[in-house]
C-alpha cells in the first residue's frame, strides 16, 4: 500500500507548501482561489482518476435499450460488426460482435451458460469488476472451448456450487460486467450463425437454475444524474461506490477523498459542501477528463511501462489487472477512456500509433504506406488486425466500407515474397493498389490500432516490432 501513502502525503504536502509560499488571496491560475477550493481540486483530480472506471460502468449500465430492456442478468447483443454510425468511442473492433450484460451477484451467484462450439469460432466472455479489471474469462482460450455452466459468485458467498459446474469464478464486487466478443466475418451467410451462437449465452440466478425455471430479471437503480449537472460525475461515483465499495486496502485513500465529500466514506452530500469546495470539484472533473484524454493518446501507464517500437506503443502489460499494481492512472486513461475495457495480454495484445516514421501526427492531409515483410506479419493463433480510428476513437466513414486490414480481411494482395503493403490515404489509389487501400479521414488526424488475439511469444514479451508508417513524399 506504499503507493496510497505516497499519493496521500503528496497531496497534503502540495497544499501545505503552497500555503507556506503564497499569501492568502494571491491569484492562482488567473483567479483568486481559497485554500479549500485548491485542496478540493487537487483531491478531486485524484478521485476522478481513481473513480473514472466505475463512473463509466455505472453510466453504461444505465444506458436505455430498445423496448425498455435492462442489461441486468441478461445480454444485450449487437448482431452486426461495429460501424462508423456508432459514435461511442472505445475503439470498437471489426472482427467480433459485442455482447454486454451486468450480473447482479450481490445476493446470490448466477450461472453463466455457453453453447457448444464445434466450429471453433473465436469467442470470449470477459468478466470484469465494476472498476474495469478482469476477474476471469470463459471462452475458446481460457476455458478450452468447453461448453456448459459456469458459476459466478459475489463477495461473501459461502454456499456450495451445484453439480455440473465447469468452474467457479469469484468477484470481489457485488456487480460484474460481462463483455462478450463473438467472431464473425460479417457476411450474410455467417451473421445468422454468429447470432445463433450469441443466443446460446445465458445468465440464470442460482435459485432459478436449481429450480430449472426462469426468474424475473433484476433491475438496478440508476446512479447517474443529469449530464447538465457539472458535478454529475462525482455524484454518480459516490452512489456507485456505495453499491460496489473499493477494496479494504484502499481505505486510507477513501478517507482522503471523503474530506471533500467524495467516495463511500463521505459524510456530506456533494450539494451540502462549501461552494468553494464545489468549485474545486467542478474544475477537477473538467481537468480530469482532459488529463485522461492525454494519457490515452500517450498510452501512459506509469507502472506497466510499455515498449515503443517504430512509433507503435504496446498496451500496458498490466492491462486487465491494473489496480493490483496501484496503476489507477493507467486504468482510467488507457484501459477505460480509450477502450472502455481491455483484455489481459494472454487474450489479446494491442499496439497503437498516432505518428509516422518521423514522429509526426498521422493526418488525412497526407498519404502513407505501411510495408510488412513476411517476418513482420503478426503471429496470432486466432486472428490479427489493424483498424483505423479518428481522434475520438471512432471508426471513420468511407466509400469503400473498409476500416482496417488483417489476416481475416478478404481480397488483400500479398507480395510474392509473402509481404503485405497497405496504402493509407483519403483518396482511392489507382490500379492494384486499390485492393490494399485503407481510407483515412480527409483533413483530420487519425490513429492505427493493431490487435492480435491469442498472441505469439514475440507479442507477449514485446520484442515484436511493427513496421513504421511512412509518409509518401508528393
From TrEMBL:
The keyword NAD does not apply. Gene3D superfamilies: Domain of unknown function DUF1214, C-terminal domain, Domain of unknown function DUF1254. Residues 1-21 form the signal peptide. The keyword Phosphoprotein does not apply. Residues 348-455 form the DUF1214 domain. Residues 72-205 form the DUF1254 domain. PANTHER family: BLL3101 PROTEIN. This is DUF1254 domain-containing protein. It comes from Denitratisoma oestradiolicum.
